[in-house]
Amino acid sequence: MDRLDNTIRPYAWGSPTAIPHLLGVEPTGEPQAEMWMGAHPGAPSRTGRGTLVEVIEAAPERELGEKAVAKFGPRLPFLLKLLAAGAPLSLQVHPDLAQAEEGYADEEHRGIPVDAPHRNYKDANHKPELICALTEFDGLCGFRPPARAADLLDALGVDSLKPYVDLLHAQPEEAALREVLTAILTADPDEMAHTVAAATAACDRLGGDHAPYAGLAHHYPGDPGVIAAMLLNHVRLQPGEALFLGAGIPHAYLNGLGVEIMANSDNVLRCGLTPKHVDVPELLRVVHFESGDPGVLRPEAAPDGEEVYETPIDEFRLSRHVLPEGAAAHDLTLTTPQILLCTAGTVRAGEHTLTPGRSVFVPAGEKAEVSGAGTVFRATVIA
């Protein structure tokens, strides 16, 4: 079992205080957006044996287990994070596996450098993800029914939004959502900036259901993603609740601290709320134009006290153990690799004492017993 030393990414949207407060350290004054736990080459966790990438490469079957290597190859197939949003992230969507493979092969064939700002596919993998709230957590997830989106836009009283309102009422669901999102993202930038400014003033005045979008608009003035975001469901997670984001589902995180787990990929197609590249044709190929409930997940209790966040993904499985004072030790030994992350209290994991924000890597088959009083999240795979 290896204690992990993890990298914190200082993205501009990060909260300056949430991760430091969890870790019990003084804030630096700079944004601290994500703490990465895993073997992603961009920022692998460090152990006493080297980086987690080096540890796994040296003996993949010993570290990951035969079943995981047979199913996913000689790599850790998930990335675990602490995510602290102090400002809205970009409105985005992820491809499915076939789309990622096709898009990556196409851009490789065309010789687009992998670090080029207009490149869409950094790898050939999909990027399903799960976010579990540690604090109250706001996000956008999936399309509203077109009629509800039309009502939200119509209430703003902005004349330039009327064509979108009419389209949302007149067309079948898929066509309505596709046509309106396309129109928003391909509109004249100057005209859209005026529309967003008028919509922002109206959102400020109306409050209520419009309040989250006013916040977006003040962070991204003039960005067409502000209007695109109003097509999506707003959801507020309470601590312990989660969202699963599958392929093709547009989403954005707005504010809060959570535990995030995802397949080990960097593939993101942006819809707005960003100065970065937006490839509208490729985005429209990937988005699922159907409305639906955001599908808030609550953990399902297992007989051994484990609380599992069920998803349709094999690359990761997230669960938690809430250990009360004086409880017997829990045996978490598995034949698959694990990362254990403490988020509350003080927990003993093997020979390591974990306080909030501290984590360990447990090789496949390694004895993993936890005790103490606190909360431990467990990330592993289904193999």
Question: Unreliable stretches, pLDDT < 50, 5 or more residues?
Answer: none
Backbone structural class: alpha+beta
Mean pLDDT across the residues is 94
Overall body shape: globular
| Helix content bin | 25-40%
Residue fraction in strands: 25-35%
Number of β-strand runs: 21
**Alpha carbon gap, first and last residue:** 20 Å
Q: What value does the Rg take, in angstroms?
A: 22 Å
**So how many helices?**
12
Please give the largest β-sheet: 9 strands, antiparallel
SSE layout and pairings?
Layout: E1 2-3, E2 7-9, H1 18-23, E3 34-38, E4 46-47, E5 50-51, H2 52-58, H3 60-64, H4 66-72, E6 78-85, E7 91-93, H5 97-109, E8 129-133, E9 137-143, H6 146-154, H7 162-170, H8 173-186, H9 189-206, H10 211-219, H11 225-229, E10 232-237, E11 242-245, E12 251-263, E13 269-272, H12 280-286, E14 300-301, E15 307-309, E16 317-323, E17 330-331, E18 338-349, E19 352-354, E20 359-362, E21 369-380
Antiparallel strand pairs: 1-20, 2-3, 3-6, 4-5, 6-12, 7-13, 8-11, 8-12, 9-10, 9-12, 14-15, 15-16, 16-21, 17-21, 18-19, 18-20, 18-21
At a glance:
This protein has helices spanning 18-23, 52-58, 60-64, 66-72, 97-109, 146-154, 162-170, 173-186, 189-206, 211-219, 225-229, 280-286, and strands spanning 2-3, 7-9, 34-38, 46-47, 50-51, 78-85, 91-93, 129-133, 137-143, 232-237, 242-245, 251-263, 269-272, 300-301, 307-309, 317-323, 330-331, 338-349, 352-354, 359-362, 369-380. The strands form four sheets. Strands 1, 14, 15, 16, 17, 18, 19, 20 and 21 form a nine-stranded antiparallel β-sheet that branches. Helix content is 28%, strand content 28%.
